[in-house]
Design a protein that fits this description.
The complex is a heterodimer of chains A (252) and B (163).
Chain A lengths: L6 E6 L11 E3 L7 E6 L23 E2 L2 E6 L7 E2 L13 E5 L10 E5 L21 H6 L2 H4 L5 E5 L29 E3 L11 E2 L5 E4 L10 E11 L11 E8 L1
Parallel strand pairs in A: 10-12
Antiparallel strand pairs in A: 1-2, 1-7, 3-5, 4-13, 5-6, 7-13, 8-12, 8-14, 9-11, 9-13
Chain B lengths: L2 H13 L4 E6 L4 E3 L3 E4 L4 E4 L2 H6 L7 E8 L2 E6 L6 E10 L5 E11 L6 E8 L4 E9 L18 H4 L4
Antiparallel strand pairs in B: 1-2, 1-5, 3-4, 5-6, 7-8, 8-9, 9-10
The chains are: A mainly beta (252), B mainly beta (163).
């Protein structure tokens, strides 16, 4: 009963997926060519090498990046569109964290985004120098005019995932709620039981994050469903931006 | 695990900048995170597990000393009160790659069963820093560093503490 053997991300992606009819795809540990890629509307496809992925031009006004694709093991084939991602709040089956029944949570888990896998603290509002080029902090740090120094990455999570009684909580309706470029509050946003957050949270390392409202029941497999919206704007330093999406948790 | 293998395993852990726990029971017997036990169901040796083997067996009630063994030395808490010793780790799973990033290990001693106040020793893997005595509460644990999040309530059932 130490750490989980399996704790992974699954995304709803495929030719005909919908919120009502999802197809869940695993992001595998330590396997090359697993990527999530953002692009403009209609710009993506399932057979584009990562190096040739279309750039998304920084817009004149802050707005969402409307399309997301999942590449699952191949650099230039088999890519699947996440059709329930469009940067709006009108969806509920987009992504979920999946864990097995072999581990235990010693405290309530946290969902957030970091600059890279060294998990540094965010520096709200601070963009990388344009002469150096952007990185994951371009998204995570946000910018004062574009986002009120909240992260450009917004998310909403549903309920407790698995409650203290071991009951799985699964969404059946859109996340809805308030979603704008400046959405985000300091510290933790905690979804209530069987509910989405009323206001989407900014994922900004441990400055702004989503935390489960309870500690999911021990030795119980489950899912914690969440949806995302990635913004960009004139204040963002561009480049190849690779923020880390992570779940922070405790175990014995 | 014999002495030589234990020393080897300890050296490997510490060289990686990580830490491990060790306990002594009232019987005098000592256990550590580096030990293995025979799992009869699987028919093989598996790592000793805090929750399964110490909490599940009830041995956590008889822990008299708990150590956090780190690259910067050891911290020891005497825990004469039953169900007052605790241990857990904290880390982040990179959801894009599946990588598990270990960030810290905690040992603790429950000081007050009414308020849940406890003393913690922390090995911060990310910063390679040892904190020898930090006070917080098991029912609403704070942030051990200004750049960290409040941990919140601990799962007393799995860490083996009783209020």
């Amino acid at each position: 009963m130490a750490d989980f053997t399996t704790l992974k991300l699954q995304v709803n992606a495929g030719v005909a997926v919908t919120d009502a009819s999802p197809t869940w795809n695993d992001f595998l540990f330590g396997t090359a060519n697993y990527e999530m890629r953002l692009c403009g509307s209609g710009a993506g496809a399932g057979n584009i090498a990562s190096a040739n992925w279309p750039s998304f031009l920084r817009p004149a006004a802050v707005g969402v990046i409307p399309e997301m694709w999942a590449y699952l093991g191949s650099d230039n084939s088999g890519g699947l569109q996440m059709k329930t991602y469009d940067g709006t709040s009108a969806h509920y089956m987009q992504a979920r964290v999946s864990w097995d029944a072999l581990g235990n949570f010693a405290s309530a888990p946290i969902l957030s985004a970091w600059k890279d896998n060294t998990l540094p603290a965010a520096s709200p509002g601070t963009q990388p120098s344009p002469t150096v080029g952007g990185d994951g902090s371009s998204f995570v740090n946000g910018q004062v005019t574009d986002t009120g120094s909240t992260s450009y990455i917004k998310a909403n999570a549903f309920g407790y995932g698995v409650d203290t009684g071991g009951v799985q909580q699964t969404p059946a309706s859109n996340a809805a709620g308030t979603l704008i470029a400046t959405s985000g509050t300091a510290g933790a946003a905690n979804p209530g039981t069987g509910a989405w957050l009323a206001t989407w949270q900014s994922l900004q390392a441990l400055t702004q994050y989503i935390q489960d409202g309870v500690i999911p029941k021990t030795l119980t497999a489950g899912f914690w469903y969440f949806v995302m919206a990635y913004y960009t704007g004139p204040g963002m330093t561009g480049g190849t931006l690779l923020p880390v999406l992570g779940m922070q948790y405790s175990w014995t | 695990m014999d002495v030589i293998m234990h020393l080897f395993a300890a050296t490997q852990i510490l060289r990686k900048g990580q830490s491990y726990w060790k306990v002594q029971l009232r019987s005098g017997k000592t256990y550590s995170e580096l030990d293995t036990v025979l799992d009869l169901r699987q028919g093989k040796s598996v790592p000793l597990d805090w929750t399964r083997d110490l909490v599940g067996s009830g041995d956590c009630a008889t822990i008299t000393h708990i150590w956090l063994c780190t690259p910067q030395g050891e911290v020891c808490f005497e825990t004469p009160e039953p169900y007052s010793a605790l241990q857990f780790k904290r880390g982040t799973a990179n959801l894009w790659t599946g990588e598990r990033i270990l960030e810290a290990q905690f040992i603790g001693r429950l000081e007050d069963k009414v308020t849940g106040r406890a003393t913690f020793a922390i090995w911060d893997v990310k910063r390679q820093q040892l904190t020898e005595a930090w006070m917080s509460y098991v029912q609403d644990m704070g942030a051990w560093h200004p750049d960290e999040a409040r941990i919140g309530p601990l799962n007393l059932e799995v860490i083996g503490v009783r209020l």
